[in-house]
Amino acid sequence: MTEHWFSYLPLSRWWLDVIDILLVAFLLYRVMLLLRGTRAVQMAAGLAVIIVVYFAAKALELYTLHWLLGTVLSSLFLLIIIVFQDDIRRVLTQMGQTPFLKTRVKTFQAMEEVAKAASTLAETKTGALMVLEREIGLGDYLESGVPVDGRVTRELLCTIFHPGTPLHDGAVIIRDGRLAGAGCVLPLTTNPDVSKRLGTRHRAAIGVTEHTDAVAVVVSEETGSISVAIAGKITRGIDSGTLRRILHNTFSLEEEERPWWKRRLI
């Protein structure tokens, strides 16, 4: 019935093929984007090696190895689900979100809460390190901490960094306007030009922004001063108003520079 209907529209089948290819390409792109920077990439590479060895064993007539790998790969679909269950859950959750309403509002709300939290923490000289993810994924650093997946609020941030709590020493990472993880370990800068007077939090803030395009906000537990690090450069001694302005300018500029199609689909 469908073929009969398309027989009157000779170009429709061609357009459906194009749409089919574009949808598959978009799906693969989204999966790769979500898996970027996580251990899932290495795990997928490991599975690919097993598959290559399986066919190599068959070609070389290594019957025992071929049988053993064949037994493992016979449950490949189940194996993929087990190994990648966390990533599959995350992919499905994010794909279920409406891209048009996605991150922009949540990101700006999160920035506002970060500025409020920094101000409150500065008043009590409570050390804090808050990292806002941008284009480059922070999946590896998230895996070093504790998953949270909560709404970013001043109260939650202040609670996490309250001295004596288990996660107060690490960094929190904010992804797509959500608090993705806490207690995360970040790389320290090795730049010899960075002042030796800077503590671990400041060095970690500089370090993570040297490796990625993230924005890191630091509150000093010694002086209560607020600092922000972008692209390996740190600006110290700012107030919450200046921090709010820097964050808004940085993310607004990023949004303006992003192509219109990327603004909608990512």
Describe the structure.
The protein has a 7-stranded mixed sheet, with helices on both faces. About 55% of the residues lie in helices and about 15% in strands. The two termini are about 35 Å apart. α2 packs across α6 and α7 packs across α9. The protein is elongated, with a radius of gyration of 24 Å. The chain has 12 helices and 7 strands. With about 270 residues, the protein is an alpha+beta fold. The C terminus is likely disordered. It has 2 domains: about 80 residues, no CATH class; about 160 residues, YojJ-like (1 (3-Layer(aba) Sandwich), CATH 3.40.1700.10. One of its GO terms (molecular function) is adenylate cyclase activity. It catalyses: 2 ATP = 3',3'-c-di-AMP + 2 diphosphate. InterPro entries: C-di-AMP_synthase (IPR014046), CdaA (IPR034701), CdaA_N (IPR045585), DisA (IPR050338), DNA_integrity_DisA_N_sf (IPR036888), DNA_integrity_scan_DisA_N (IPR003390). Catalyzes the condensation of 2 ATP molecules into cyclic di-AMP (c-di-AMP), a second messenger used to regulate differing processes in different bacteria. Keywords: ATP-binding, Cell membrane, Membrane, Nucleotide-binding, Nucleotidyltransferase, Transferase, Transmembrane, Transmembrane helix.
Describe the secondary-structure layout.
Blueprint: H1 2-6, H2 12-35, H3 40-59, H4 63-73, H5 76-83, H6 85-95, H7 103-123, E1 128-132, H8 139-142, E2 146-151, H9 154-160, E3 171-175, E4 178-184, H10 200-211, E5 215-219, E6 226-230, E7 233-238, H11 240-257, H12 260-265
Parallel strand pairs: 1-3
Antiparallel strand pairs: 1-5, 2-4, 3-4, 5-6, 6-7
Helix pairs in contact: 2-6, 3-4, 7-9, 7-11
